[in-house]
Each structure stands twice: as C-alpha cells, then as structure tokens.
Design brief:
elongated, 5-stranded parallel beta sheet, 6-stranded parallel beta sheet, single chain, alpha/beta, Rossmann fold, 2 domains, about 40% helix
Length: about 325
C-alpha cells in the first residue's frame, strides 16, 4: 500500500502524544496500538515525544500527570498535542497555545459518567478521531474523523501452526480456542470459558488458551498456534485483535460489537454470535469443524497500520 509522504513541513514539526495507555516492562500489552502509531510516525520522520499520564499503573496520578504535562510543554515547544482517551485529552486542553487532537478509542468510553466527560471534551478539542461511524454518532461531533486503529501487517501474518505451538509449548493434538486481551470484566472472558467448557464436554481435545500480559511481539505466535479466536466483549470500538487475527488468517468467532461485523464481512470461517455461551459454542464448533485457515489477510489489507498513520498525518497537516 502506498503511504502518505511526510512533507518537509511535517518533518520540522514536533508532536507530543499524551496517553494513559502505553506498554512497559510490567504491562507489555497495555496500549500497544498507541505505541505502534508512535513508532510508525517516527519511522516516517515525525518528531514525536510521549507522555504517559494516569492509567493502569497510576490511577490516582492524573494531577501529577497535569503537572508533568505543564513542565514538559514549558521545557520544549510543541506544534501539536495528540491525546489518547478522555482524561489525557483534558490534560492536553489545559493549554490553549497549541492545537489538540483527541483520539477516542471506543464505545466503552461512551458509557456512564465517562461518556458524559467525552461529550464535554469533544467540542473543546481542535479535532477528534473516533473508531467507527457508530462511535461518531455516540460522541455527537459531526466533523469527527473516523480513524480505526490499524494492524501491523509486517508483524502479524500467517506462519506454520506446528512451529508456533512448539515455540509456545502448546500441545499439537488439541483444538485451541484463543482469547487475547487484558482481563477486565467487560471483556467477558466468562462467556468464552463457558462456551469452551460446553465444547470440551463433548470433545476433550477442545481447550482454551488465554494470552494476557504478553509482549505484543509474541501475540502472532498465539494466533498462528490456535484454531480460532473468540471475542465476547460488552464494549469495543474497532478492536485491533480482530484485525490481527484476520492478518494471520485465523478464524474468528465474535459477538456483534464495534465494527467487528464490518471487518470480518463475509469471510468464510468467521462467525458472529450472540453473547451467550451456547450460541458461541455452536459458532466455535463450526470454525473448528471447518478445520481451515481463512482468507482474512486479503480482506483487511486496507486496515493496515500504514492506512491509520496516513489518516493521522492528513489531520496533523490540517492542524499545523
């Protein structure tokens, strides 16, 4: 895919990314999609700094984050501040001299009091991105840019199942259902566990593999080692894990959440199910009985990380 060239103007600009999600040694799977965007922007020649505030590791430190943000912006002049998620966005908007782009990342943000804060913040930003048309309607800002997070097609791709299982120490003779994600209640791992338990009662070779807290570079191994990915979340925007599975040609069984139905489309071997163990178990059985990989990689070529960064660069150019 042809990528957007960074203009001479862009190469001379500096961006501060403010985020409450970013991986580190203790949480290698936390906010990897933000890190991927930053690294791709840097690879394109954009000068990007990152400031991590609040979040999983510092839930009570947003005040400290605001202090560090002020110090950082006094220490260095930035041409644009790109904030991820609502609380980072409010910190970014503490100043008025530099344009602010806020990226809202999903329907989970739009629930309850956090959703109200999102609607308060949205008109205060110079520009916003959302993950889908549905998300745009929920936020209520008509000029929001729809920019779903893309998948790193260089990292995620098909590989031999046997080799992947050997590298992970997984059994060669099992039918493996994969869950990838942070263990939060809204991810509804309980539904997946119940569905797999139903299948296991009839076929003891069916087992669940939970990949959580793993370095992002290891996730392609899991996707190539397993037979189907399951997702049952209550809320999602544009879940990258679905695109990553598609890039590895891994069958997908998911509830109709976010843009999943649009992403998988009519891909043979991928199924939408209800958020009920019995229906998920039936769709998982279909995928397992089919016993083949999908053509998912061809389906999601337009959803690569390059396309996401192309879109961001166009927005950056509008704001500079």
């Amino acid at each position: 895919m042809e990528t957007t060239a960074v203009s001479r103007q862009a190469a001379e600009r500096c961006v501060l990314v403010v985020t409450n999600m970013y991986p580190d040694a203790q949480n290698p799977d936390f906010g990897t999609f933000v890190q991927e965007q930053v690294e791709e922007l840097q690879a394109r020649g954009v000068d990007v700094d990152v400031l991590v505030v609040g979040g999983k590791r510092r839930k009570l430190s947003y005040l400290d984050g605001a202090r560090r943000f002020r110090h950082r912006t006094l220490e260095r002049r930035y041409d644009l501040i790109h904030a991820h998620y609502v609380f980072s966005g409010f910190i970014a908007r503490l100043q008025r001299s530099v344009p602010v782009l806020v990226s809202f990342h999903g329907a989970a943000e739009m629930v309850g009091w956090v959703g109200l804060l999102c609607k308060v913040l949205a008109p205060l930003a110079d520009a916003v991105t959302v993950t889908s048309q549905q998300h745009k309607r929920q936020l209520g800002r008509k000029d929001a840019h729809v920019v779903p997070c893309g998948v790193d097609l260089k990292l995620f791709g098909p590989a031999p199942k046997g080799e992947a299982r050997h590298n992970l120490g997984l059994p060669l003779d099992k039918k493996l259902v994969l869950f990838v994600g942070i263990l939060r209640p809204e991810k509804r791992l309980d539904v997946i566990q119940a569905a797999v338990a139903m299948l296991h009662r009839d076929d003891e070779s069916v087992e669940l593999v939970v990949a959580t807290g793993q370095p992002h570079q290891r996730i392609p191994l899991y996707m190539n080692a397993c037979d189907v990915l399951a997702l049952a979340s209550d809320h999602e925007g544009s879940p990258v894990v679905i695109k990553e599975a598609m890039a590895c040609n891994l069958p997908v069984v998911s509830v109709d959440v976010g843009d999943v139905a649009q992403v998988i489309g009519a891909t043979e071997g991928c199924y939408i199910c209800r958020r009920e163990p019995a229906d998920m178990a039936q769709k998982l059985r279909w995928a397992l009985d089919r016993g083949q990989r999908t053509d998912g990689r061809n389906v999601i070529q337009r959803l690569g990380l390059d396309a996401t960064v192309d879109s961001l660069l166009r927005i950056y150019e509008e704001l500079w």
